[in-house]
């Protein structure tokens, strides 16, 4: 298998394992990313889009559901009423804490097949370098070329 296919396959495995572990705290992987993006204080939905790479409409829908589930609050910005300020509730903080523990277990499961601790650490450094090289990527700019 070529490198790109292996990276894609590893991403699929990571998604599957992550989803299984987060299901125990009733979150999806994207909801977890959203809560993480809001963790350190009030942010707006645009910040969540930039931090997660999830498109605006999906973030807006996810925030509505997380608000409904009492995990975060959304309030209109004081200076700009179009701006949605997001903040974790106490329930959101508790859920995020449990989700972080679930993610640690997911990582342990994923990296159990990575060989030694040194090999797993080297893989993490390589993946981090790739992510840093390209920086934030919005799902809105990732497109599939069409045949003409």
Count of DSSP E strands? 3
Q: Outline, from the CA principal axes?
A: globular
Low-confidence parts: none
Main beta sheet: 3 strands, antiparallel
Report helical residue fraction: 55-70%
Structural class: mainly alpha
- Look at the structure and give the mean pLDDT: 86
Can you put this structure into words, describing what you see?
The protein has 148 residues and is mainly alpha-helical. The chain contains 6 helices and 3 strands. The chain has helices spanning 3-22, 29-38, 45-52, 56-68, 90-111, 117-134; strands at 43-44, 72-76, 84-88. The protein has a 3-stranded antiparallel β-sheet with strand order 1-3-2. The longest helix has 22 residues, at 90-111. It is globular, with a radius of gyration of 17 Å. The mean pLDDT is 86.
Give the gist of this structure:
The protein has helices spanning 3-22, 29-38, 45-52, 56-68, 90-111, 117-134, and strands at 43-44, 72-76, 84-88.
Summarize the topology:
Blueprint: H1 3-22, H2 29-38, E1 43-44, H3 45-52, H4 56-68, E2 72-76, E3 84-88, H5 90-111, H6 117-134
Key features of this structure:
148 residues, mainly alpha, 3-stranded antiparallel sheet
